[in-house]
Amino acid sequence: MIASRFAVAVHILTLVATFDNEQLTSESMAESIGVNPVVVRTLLGKLRKAGLVRTRRGVAGAELVRPLEKIRLLDIYLAVNPEGGLFSFHAHPSPKCPVGANIHASLGRHLDRAEKALAKSLAESNLSEVTKEVRRQSKRKH
Question: CB neighbours (10 Å) of residue 10?
Fold first, then answer.
């Protein structure tokens, strides 16, 4: 399940892109996002491991490793959801029931198709698009 990890990760990267050379702390990012700083540090670790950001131990801030246009939303999604999958099946349907015995196979192909459509859509969008939209919205409100 994605939960909110993906949206929070995009928020983090948009902060890094927007406040380019500023030393953003996990606390300041967490305040913007409305989460605990531990969540920010955990996701920054996943984003670093995926090669999307560079961080230095003991030093505030992060920097993007690639240009915004080269960071697809799919890259972010896969960084924070390495196990993949929007959907997960319940573990033990009854094999004695005709529905329980066949639900995974019958529903699975539909869920696979939905996940492939999501991946295709995220692959066609990048962080630059999100960052530009945030900046546009911000100018409208000020």
Answer: 19
Angle of helix 37-49 relative to helix 26-33, nearest 10 degrees, comes to 110
Structural domains in the chain?
5-85+126-141 (1.10.10.10)
Angle between the 5-18 and 73-80 helix axes, to the nearest 10 degrees? 130
CA 136/CA 3 separation, integer angstroms: 27
Question: Model-level pTM?
Answer: 0.84
Q: Which residue intervals of 1-141 are DSSP H helices?
A: 5-18, 26-33, 37-49, 73-80, 103-123, 127-141
**Tell me: the pLDDT tens digits for 111-132?**
889 989 999 999 999 999 999 9
